[in-house]
Amino acid sequence: SRIELGQRRLQSTPATAPATPPFAFAFDIDGVLLHVNEPIPGAAEALRHLHRHNIPFILLTNGGGRYEADRIADLQQRLGLDLHAHVQGSDCGGPLPVLSTANFVQSHTPFQELLDNAAGLDRKAGGAAAASLAGLRDQTILVTGSDASRIRIIAEKYGFKSVVTPADILAAYPAIYPFDPLLKSVYAATARPLPKPLLLEGGKLAAAATTPFAADSLDASKYLRIAAAFVFNDPRDWALDIQLLTDLLQARRGFLGTFDPASLSAQGTTPNDGARLFFSNSDLLWATTYHLPRFGQGAFSAATAGVWKQMVSPAQPPLLSPENGRATLLGKPHEATYLYAERKLTRYREALLKAHGGQAGAAAAAEPLKSVYMVGDNPESDIAGANQFSSTHGTDWCSVLVETGVYDPLLDSASPDYLRHRPRAIVRDVAAAVRWALQREG
Ligand code: G3P
Ligand code: MG
C-alpha cells in the first residue's frame, strides 16, 4: 500500500559531501521526471539533492529517438538543471555534471554493444560472455522510429557504417508499398540512394532468388543484404514499417526482395540465417498529457508480431518469444537492459566517487554496489523489470512506484488484479521516492 511521507522538502546540503553509501538510484523519465515535456514538481530538486550528496544515479528510460547528448541538453533545460553543478567541498577531481552520457541510458543506447559483437547484448550476469558473433559495424542495417532520417544519424554517430531507412527503400522501389505513402514528402526529402540494389531484375525476382535458393548464389557484394533491423523508438508509419520488417523476416539471409519458404515453417528460420530484429522498448502504454495512457513502441512490436503470426505456421513460436529467436527485445523490463544499466551505473559510481569523494570516495568506489532504487511509474516495465532482475542477480534492485504516470491508484484500489507486479513501495512522486529510500538507508 501507499507510503505517506508528507510534503517535507529534502534536507539541505551539508558543507562537505559524505562518503557515498553502497546504494544508488535509477530514474525513469516519462511519468517520473517529466510528463512528455513538462517537469514533474520536485524532480529536479531530487536529482540535485542526490548529486550534492555524492549519491550516484542514472536515468533509465524506454524513450528514445534523439542522440544521447542532445536529449541530455534538452532535459537539462526542461528540468532547469545546472549543467555545471557539482559537489561543493570536494577535495579532488573536477566537477561532474548532474546529467551526462555517463549516467544516461535510453532505449536504444545499448545498441552500441552490437557494433563489434552481434551477440553483445546476450551477455548474462557472472561475466560469462555469449559466443561472439561478427559485429554489425560494417554490415548494412535498417533503422526506423519516429524520424528515421534523424535515427540514421544517431546510428552513424554510434559507429554503424551502412544504415538504410524505409525512405531509402521506398524511393528506390516504390512498388514495394502499393498504397500512397503517408509521409510522401518526408520520404522524398530524406531518402538516400541504397548502397546496393535489391535482388530484383526488371521488377522481378532475380534468378538467384528463385531457384535453387543456394546460399552461395546470393552475393552480398552485389545485392542489398540487411543483417539487422533496429526499431529505435515509436514508428509513425506502421503500415510501411510492418511491411518492410515482414519482408525482411521472410527474406533469404536478409536479402530483401527474396522469399524463403522456410521462414514461414513451424520452426522458422534460424536466427543466424536471417536478418535479426531489435525492438528497443516493449512499453504497450506510456504516460502522456492525455488523461489515459497512450500506445508506446510495444504496441508497434505487438502489431508486427500479430501480422507475422497470421503469415506463418500456427506452430511457429510467437515472434517476440525467445523461442522464436529472430527478435531481440530491449528496454525495461528486459534483463539485457538492466544488465547494461547496472554496468553503466557501476562505472559511473566509480567515476563519481573518485572525482568527488576524496580518499573516502575512492575507498567507497571499491565497495560493491549493494542496492539500486528503481523509481518508475509503469508497473509492467520499471517495476516488473527491477523485481525480476533482483530475483536473479546479486544487486538488489528495489522497485518504487510513483503515482505521477501510468499507474493509477484508483484502479488499483478498485481491482485486485490491476497490479500484476508489486513494487516494494508506492509513493506519491519522485521526491517522496527519494525521501523514502534515504530514510530506509538511514
Ligand atoms: O516512449 C517512452 C515511453 O515508452 C516510456 O519512457 O521514461 O517512462 O521509460 P519512460
Ligand atoms: Mg515512465
List the helices and strands and how they pair.
Layout: E1 23-27, E2 34-35, E3 38-39, H1 43-52, E4 57-60, H2 68-79, E5 104-105, E6 140-144, H3 148-158, E7 162-164, H4 166-172, H5 184-190, E8 200-201, E9 204-205, H6 207-210, E10 226-231, H7 238-249, E11 276-279, E12 285-286, E13 294-295, H8 297-311, E14 327-329, H9 335-356, H10 358-366, E15 371-376, H11 379-392, E16 396-402, H12 409-414, E17 425-427, H13 430-441
Parallel strand pairs: 1-4, 1-15, 4-5, 6-7, 6-10, 10-11, 11-14, 15-16, 16-17
Antiparallel strand pairs: 2-3, 8-9, 12-13
Bound molecules: SN-glycerol-3-phosphate and magnesium ion.
Describe the structure.
- The protein is an alpha/beta fold.
- It has two domains: 23-107 and 334-441, Rossmann fold (3-Layer(aba) Sandwich), CATH 3.40.50; 110-329, Rossmann fold (3-Layer(aba) Sandwich), CATH 3.40.50.
- It has helices at 43-52, 68-79, 148-158, 166-172, 184-190, 207-210, 238-249, 297-311, 335-356, 358-366, 379-392, 409-414, 430-441; strands at residues 23-27, 34-35, 38-39, 57-60, 104-105, 140-144, 162-164, 200-201, 204-205, 226-231, 276-279, 285-286, 294-295, 327-329, 371-376, 396-402, 425-427.
- A six-stranded parallel sheet has the order 5-4-1-15-16-17, with helices on both faces. It has a five-stranded parallel sheet with strand order 7-6-10-11-14.
- α4 (166-172) packs across α5 and α7 (238-249) packs across α8 (297-311).
- The longest helix is centred in the C-terminal third of the chain and has 22 residues, at 335-356.
- The radius of gyration is 23 Å and the shape is globular.
- The model is unreliable at 13-17, 86-94 and 125-129 (pLDDT under 50).
- The chain binds SN-glycerol-3-phosphate (G3P) and magnesium ion.
- Magnesium ion is lined by residues 28, 30-32, 376-378, 405.
